[in-house]
Every structure is written in C-alpha cells, then in structure tokens.
Amino acid sequence: MSPAEGKPVIDSREAVQVASTGTVARTVLPPTEAPPPARPAKPRETRLRALDGLRLVAALMVAAYHYGGRDGEVAKAWGTSPRHQFPVLHGYFAYGCLGVQVFFVISGFVICMSGWGRPLRSFFASRASRLLPAYWAAIILVTVVFALPMVAFKTVSPSDTLVNMTMLQYPLGVDRVLGVCWTLWAEVRFYALFALCIVLPGANRRRVIMFCAGWTLAYAIAQGAKMPPLDIVLMPEYAPYFIGGVGLYLVHRDRKDVYAWGIVAVSWLIGQHYAVQGLWHAPQANGFSYRTSYGIVLVVTFGYVAVAAIALGWLRWANWRWLTVAGALTYPFYLVHEHLGWVVIKALHQGLHIPSYATFLLTAASMLLLAWLLNRYVENWLTPKLRTALAKPRPQPIP
C-alpha cells in the first residue's frame, strides 16, 4: 500500500498482530542505534597557485623590457639609452616583451575555466569587475602624476583622458594614457568572442573544440584574403595564444584528450611564427634589434610549456599562499609599471644618482608596492560592489 492510496502503511521494523476484533495492533521494536554523523569532507583546493606565480613572472618580463629592453621615453628617464645603462643585460631584456604572449596563453586558460558553466550575465560581471576598477584608478593616477610641474613626461588632453576610461581608445585612434592598454583591447575582443560562441549557448567540450578550430580557420582565411576589417575581429597575430590557452584548459580537464593536444600544437606552431615575424628585427624606431629567431621561439615555447605543466598538475607542489597575493598584484602592477616607472627611474637615477641596477630593482619594488595599495584600497573595495551590481538580475515589470 502506498500513502497515495490513503491506507495505513506498516513499517518493516514493527511486529504486527491482528486481534480478534480485526484491528491492527503494533508492537514497536527497540530502535536501532543511529550511525555516527559523517565527518564533513575537506574542501578540495581548486586554485592553481602556480598560475598566479606565472602571471607575475610574465608581468616582470614586460617590466624588464620597458625599463631596459628598448629606447623611447625610458631613455629620457635614464638620461641615456638603456643599452648604455645595461651593456650586458639589455639584449636579454629585449625578450621581455614576449611576456604579453605568455599572458595571452594564461588568459585563454583562465577564461575558459571561469566561463565554463557560468551564465552570460555572471561572466560579464566577473570580467568587467576584474578589469575596470584598477584600470580606472591607473588612468586617474597616471594623469595626475604626469600633470605635476616637476614631471617631464607629456600627458594626454582632458578629452582623450575621458575616452580612455571606456577602454576603447585604441580602436578609436585616441591618445593613450597607458601604453599597455593595447593588450587590454586584445583581451576584450577575446572575451567578446568567447562569450558569444561559448558562454551564451553553454560551454561543453565539443563546442569549445569547434570554437578553437573555427577561429583558427577563420583568421587564416582572413589573412590569406587580405581582409583587414576581419583581422580586427579575429586577431590573427594574437589568436593562437588565446586558443592555445583554451586548448590547455581542455587538457587540464582530460590530459588524454587528443583533440585538445592538437589544438595546443597547432596554436604553438602558428603562434611562434607570428612572434618571430613581428619581433625579429622589428621595424620600430625604439626597439632593440638584438633578438634571434631561436630566442623568440624559445620564450614562446616557455609560455606554452609552463601553462601545460600547470594544466597537467606537475606544479601542484607550488601551492604557497603568497603566490595568490602575487597573482592579485599582477594586473595593477602591469597597468602602472611603465609610465610611473619612468618617473621613479628619473627621480632615483638622475635625481639621487643611484646606480642603474639598483634603480631598476627599486623601481620594480616601488611599482609592486603601488600595485598592493591599488589592490587593497581600490580592487578589494570596488570589485565586489561592481560585480554584485552587474550580476544582479533585473526585476521584471509588473504587468
């Protein structure tokens, strides 16, 4: 008999006696002793702290390039070309610009991981709240510092500064407050493609594989057909690194996934080509032409191999808590290190006559300290508020 039938249900632990009156008498057996409560399982550590450390390594590579691996405004800060300040290391510092490619591989991995199983509103809220608070603070800080009378570096116009707050200054052809913002424009385009093709319909392995394959084929066709408008969307010179990072996240989910390894291999083969093409004897007036094609390939390979080692769990032992702090400082450090670094270099080297190598280290340390302040007092305060506001569902109007 079931409860749905409206008749009494006799528990199997009860001894049932039918009396002569036809009623049911129940004798309840002694209850069995309840099992002890299960010990709550210890939550599994999911944060890949080695990835945080790799972020900081990539940021320091870019800083080494900006401080000692090229000419331009930094030569004004030093008083002479960095090749004279660092006669031995300037050639190695010139490879630091490839930290950007390492960043893009990391970004492909992280965005696929964070977007998997997340609705579009939540994905947008997490990305916007991650990028914008420190970015806005960096724009304001650099503008204010460059406006000081004792600072010899030129600031942009007030109108252009306001456009910079949108993060669209690069495609609009507006003067940039931050020299590194061109990489953020590449990141934003990647986020948009991933959101439309993966997050909106829902992430799964097949869809991600088709996204990687379709994007690779599309940018190859656009390049072959000489279609610059499509190049803006498809980013052939940066796409292989993002796609390679996405493929490495699939490897992280299943290290035996042959398709994922194929995506990584093709992306590396194409990515090293674009890196060599763009950086070997780069035709930039301020660039140092000391890179070799083998050196460029080696640094690009380092980025892929490092993320692959993390994806495969080989660096699980690198689980120190300070790496999480390092990861939190990376983005604000990346934003402020170049332009404000010029100011610090000039003050330390030309003002206080501190030797070049000590100035280099003190400048990097001061930018890390500033990044900590931005993380502590801007990001930790504004990021949760912005994320909550953007992720909150809009109330439905009452009909």
Secondary structural class: mainly alpha
The order of strands across the largest sheet is 1-2
Contiguous helical run count? 16
* Radius of gyration, whole Å: 28 Å
N-C termini distance: 47 Å
Overall 3D geometry?
globular
Helix content: 55-70%
Q: Strand percentage, roughly?
A: under 5%
Mean pLDDT: 88
For the largest beta-sheet, the strand count, sense and barrel status come to:
2 strands, antiparallel
Order of helices and strands: EEHHHHHHHHHHHHHHHH
What this model shows, in words?
This protein is mainly α and 399 residues long. Helix content is 64%, strand content 3%. Strands 1-2 form a two-stranded antiparallel ribbon. A hairpin with a 5-residue loop joins strand 1 and strand 2. Helix 5 runs parallel beside helix 9. The longest helix is centred in the C-terminal third of the chain and has 36 residues. It is globular and about 60 Å long. The N terminus is likely disordered.
What is the fold's blueprint, element by element?
Elements: E1 14-18, E2 24-28, H1 49-68, H2 73-78, H3 82-85, H4 90-93, H5 99-115, H6 120-146, H7 158-164, H8 169-172, H9 181-199, H10 205-224, H11 228-234, H12 239-253, H13 258-279, H14 293-311, H15 322-351, H16 356-391
Antiparallel strand pairs: 1-2
Helix pairs in contact: 1-5, 1-15, 5-9, 5-12, 5-14, 6-15, 6-16, 10-11, 10-12, 10-13, 12-13, 12-14, 13-14, 15-16
Brief write-up:
The chain contains 16 helices and two strands. It has helices at 49-68, 73-78, 82-85, 90-93, 99-115, 120-146, 158-164, 169-172, 181-199, 205-224, 228-234, 239-253, 258-279, 293-311, 322-351, 356-391, and strands at residues 14-18, 24-28.
